[in-house]
């Protein structure tokens, strides 16, 4: 009799502990667990976080001649990030900061900009006769309400814009729509509350500047021209205290510009050079309308009188329609002062 050969021994194998307990579990060969990918904080950081990091670094950097080169480079990076924030390239990013759909009409357009509940709607109602809802709570106006002022044959369109909040330039509180509509105006009226801190003026200016609006400024008197070769050629007709060749090269290299002619005819700063390179800045006049001055003292009004480009008004607007002028507390009628700038 022939005996059957003994079966070959099976190769050893391992099973997972979780599969050994059930009776019907299938035997599988052991495989080590896949390590989780390491986080990439630099690549995954949002644009807002990058902006905040640069602003923090700029606030901690001491301003002097030794740090001018570094600060100029940081300002160029900050301008590029803000442009990326305002004009997103990805789909579904909310558009490039489109404003309210209001048809431009008349000889000039004036926008009322300010924080909520400072009297913008009441000012529009009294000056134009247009109805804009007025209430004691904030954010009464949720859309742009236009009105028209007729003066000596000139037709001025006045826009009542919703109140903005701090961080409007970053998209908070429909800030992009409000400031985008303000960019289409010829004059901006920043309405301030006399009983609120005067620091609100600087906060609103910061929001508008973050969106490329320069108030009561003229375009920089400089020439910037790109060329094919030759490197960066920097010339100036005046003594420069803010810019030098190294700073100009650093700012241009941030924009990947390696060949250009830069000619200065005034003592320019790094911000002026960045504005010229960006080419999307808007320069417009601005009037600071200080409202509710009937709730402050004469001494406080004397302090506000040092504010440039300002016009005080009261909550009682009956005197605004008096074309002969105000009382002794009002140096100019608002209509005369406004229309002398717009027309």
Concise description?
The protein has 343 residues and is an alpha/beta fold. It has eleven helices and eleven strands.
List the helices and strands and how they pair.
Blueprint: H1 17-20, H2 41-44, H3 47-60, H4 68-86, E1 108-113, H5 120-128, E2 145-151, E3 154-160, H6 175-183, E4 187-193, H7 199-210, E5 213-215, E6 222-226, E7 232-236, H8 245-254, E8 260-264, H9 270-278, E9 282-284, E10 286-291, H10 298-304, E11 310-312, H11 334-342
Parallel strand pairs: 1-3, 1-4, 4-10, 5-9, 7-8, 10-11
Antiparallel strand pairs: 2-3, 6-8
Helix pairs in contact: 3-4, 4-8, 4-9, 8-9
How would you characterize the overall build of this protein?
Residues 108-343 form the OBG-type G domain. Keywords: GTP-binding, Nucleotide-binding. The protein has 2 domains: 47-85 and 221-280, no CATH class; 108-217 and 283-342, Rossmann fold. It is built from 11 helices and 11 strands. The chain has helices spanning 17-20, 41-44, 47-60, 68-86, 120-128, 175-183, 199-210, 245-254, 270-278, 298-304, 334-342; strands at 108-113, 145-151, 154-160, 187-193, 213-215, 222-226, 232-236, 260-264, 282-284, 286-291, 310-312. Strands 2-3-1-4-10-11 form a 6-stranded mixed sheet, sandwiched between helices. Strands 6-8-7 form a 3-stranded mixed sheet, covered by helices on one side. A two-stranded parallel sheet has the order 5-9. Helix 3 runs antiparallel to helix 4 (68-86) and helix 4 (68-86) packs parallel to helix 9 (270-278). The longest helix is centred in the first third of the chain and has 19 residues, at 68-86. It is globular.
């Amino acid at each position: 009799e022939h005996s059957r050969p003994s079966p070959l021994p099976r190769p050893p194998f391992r099973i997972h502990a979780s599969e050994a307990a059930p009776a019907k579990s299938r035997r599988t060969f052991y495989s080590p667990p896949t390590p989780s990918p390491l986080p990439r904080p630099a690549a995954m950081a949002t644009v807002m976080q990058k902006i905040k990091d640069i602003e923090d670094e700029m606030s901690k950097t001491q301003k002097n001649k030794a740090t001018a080169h570094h600060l100029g480079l940081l300002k160029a990076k900050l301008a590029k990030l803000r442009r990326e924030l305002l004009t997103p390239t990805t789909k579904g990013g909310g558009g490039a900061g489109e404003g309210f759909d209001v048809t431009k009409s008349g000889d000039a357009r004036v926008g009322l900009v300010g924080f909520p509940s400072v009297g913008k709607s009441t000012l529009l109602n009294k000056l134009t006769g247009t109805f804009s809802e007025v209430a004691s709570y904030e954010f009464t106006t949720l859309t742009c309400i236009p009105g028209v002022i007729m003066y000596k044959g000139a037709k001025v369109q006045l826009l009542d814009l919703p109140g903005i909040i701090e961080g409007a330039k970053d998209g908070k509180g429909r800030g992009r729509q409000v400031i985008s509509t303000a960019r289409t105006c010829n004059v901006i009226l920043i309405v301030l509350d006399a009983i609120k801190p005067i620091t609100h003026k600087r906060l609103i200016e910061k929001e508008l500047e973050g969106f490329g609006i320069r108030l009561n400024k003229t375009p920089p008197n400089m020439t910037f021209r790109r060329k094919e070769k030759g490197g960066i050629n920097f010339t100036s007709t005046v003594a420069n205290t803010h810019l030098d060749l190294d700073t100009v090269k650093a700012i241009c290299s941030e924009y990947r510009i390696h060949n250009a002619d830069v000619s200065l005819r005034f003592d320019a700063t790094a911000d002026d050079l960045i504005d010229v390179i960006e080419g999307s800045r808007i320069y417009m006049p601005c009037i600071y309308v200080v409202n509710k001055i009937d709730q402050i003292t004469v001494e406080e009004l004397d302090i506000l009188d040092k504010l440039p480009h300002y016009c005080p008004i009261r909550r009682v607007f009956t005197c605004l329609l008096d074309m002969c002028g105000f009382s002794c507390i009002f140096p100019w009628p608002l209509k005369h002062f406004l229309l002398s700038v717009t027309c």
